[in-house]
């Protein structure tokens, strides 16, 4: 495999993540203040629009757990790219809330294709071509997507109305689709032979269930900030008009963090890296509660961007290595839990914000869930250790 070909494959994967996750999902975050100002949307509607997007994401994850045919995965991955563009553009052509719900749901389906099918297909390609089975480069596309949506939001907010802004995001996605499609390898040639599963089925099942629960907690920590960070910043008098900058900083922190977490994991171990990432994510939430100064919110966004992306990258890479013959399936099982969190948490926090007039109690609830996640993560580690001891004894 020539280095230039490897670079093209990795670039295509990253660009696809920017389209299907960065734009299809994250363009909504800087659009919240624009739509609220123009249309007077309530916090509950804002939260529900995020919820249906994650419902689509969850549905996609469920579908992927049922798919083992590599050719079908590849075709659905390509379809996800097209759907990401169309569902984004059409958001600007209606003010019907129910049509928005449908479009955000469809967008969520494309995001699951980009995240899960994309990660699984790339993992198979890396293993097939004797590259390190790490997904840090792949998940850097999430951070880059955040950066892109933040920059575009700032460039177009004064010259375009809210509906035109959605169309602009869609056109940017269309332009990016071209290199992602052209440089994409034929993943159908990357099928790997099935391997014997280490440890008993009961032990592996317990390990995966615990990992799913820990990932659910991480999903709550991720989605509350991802959905409301810009709105929280804009609600602070000192940060009015600076929400886009807070979002940009989160993306700038996330983009290189994936590689840094890979390096940290190699040196200190994946479990210590995950403990640290969970802890840092919790700290970023706490900072939004206890200090509303511009410096504190900016630092919180840096820590948030660097930590959530590390959790996603390391968790999915871990199960991908455990199940190399079909990595998308266990990734989807974890993402099913993550998707439930992403579906429920924005609606709950949005409701609390409507009732109480602030996001404070919703953030406290999120912080408690993240603390529980650290405990469950430790239980998952112990389950994996017992699994290893069982294999050695056998």
TrEMBL record:
Membrane spanning residue stretches: 7-26, 46-64, 76-93, 99-123, 135-154, 166-184, 213-232, 244-264, 271-290, 302-323, 335-353, 359-380
A Pfam entry, by short name: MFS_4
Residue ranges occupied by any Major facilitator superfamily (MFS) profile domain in the UniProt entry: 8-385
Keywords assigned: Membrane, Transmembrane, Transmembrane helix
Signal peptide (from-to): none
Domain of life where this protein originates: Bacteria
Matching PROSITE patterns: MFS
Keyword Zinc: no
The keyword Transmembrane appears for this protein: yes
Name this protein carries in UniProt: Putative arabinose efflux permease, MFS family
Organism for this UniProt entry: Marinobacter subterrani
């Amino acid at each position: 495999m020539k280095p230039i070909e490897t670079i093209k494959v990795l670039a295509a994967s990253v660009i696809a993540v920017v389209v299907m996750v960065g734009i299809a999902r994250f363009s909504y975050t800087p659009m919240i203040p624009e739509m609220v100002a123009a249309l007077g949307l309530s916090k509950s509607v804002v939260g529900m629009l995020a919820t249906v997007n994650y419902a689509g994401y969850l549905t996609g994850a469920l579908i992927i757990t049922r798919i083992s045919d590599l050719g079908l995965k590849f075709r659905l991955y390509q379809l996800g790219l097209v759907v990401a563009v169309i569902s984004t553009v059409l958001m600007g052509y209606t003010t019907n809330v129910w049509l928005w719900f449908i479009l955000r749901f469809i967008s969520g389906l494309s995001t699951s294709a980009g995240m899960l099918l994309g990660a699984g297909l790339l993992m198979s390609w890396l293993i097939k071509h004797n590259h390190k089975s790490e997904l840090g480069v792949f998940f850097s596309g999430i951070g880059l997507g955040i950066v892109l949506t933040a920059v575009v939001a700032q460039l177009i907010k004064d010259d375009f109305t809210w509906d035109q802004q959605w169309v602009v995001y869609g056109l940017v996605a269309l332009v990016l689709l071209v290199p992602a499609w052209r440089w994409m390898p034929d993943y159908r040639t990357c099928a790997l032979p099935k391997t014997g599963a280490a440890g008993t089925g009961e032990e592996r099942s317990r390990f995966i269930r615990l990992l799913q629960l820990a990932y659910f907690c991480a999903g709550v920590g991720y989605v509350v900030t991802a959905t409301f960070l810009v709105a929280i910043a804009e609600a602070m008098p000192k940060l009015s008009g600076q929400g886009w900058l807070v979002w940009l900083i989160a993306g700038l922190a996330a983009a290189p963090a994936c590689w840094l977490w890979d390096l940290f994991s190699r040196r200190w171990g994946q479990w210590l890296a995950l403990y640290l990432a969970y802890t840092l994510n919790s700290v970023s939430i706490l900072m939004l509660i206890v200090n509303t100064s511009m410096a504190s919110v900016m630092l919180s966004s840096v820590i948030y961007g660097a930590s959530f992306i590390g959790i996603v990258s390391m968790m999915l890479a871990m199960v991908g290595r455990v199940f190399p013959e079909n990595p998308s399936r266990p990734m989807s099982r974890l993402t099913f839990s993550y998707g439930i969190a992403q579906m429920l948490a924005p609606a709950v926090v949005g409701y609390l914000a409507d009732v109480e007039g602030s996001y404070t109690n919703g953030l406290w609830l999120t912080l408690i869930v993240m603390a529980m996640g650290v405990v469950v993560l430790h239980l998952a580690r112990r389950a994996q250790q017992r699994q290893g001891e069982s294999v050695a004894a056998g």
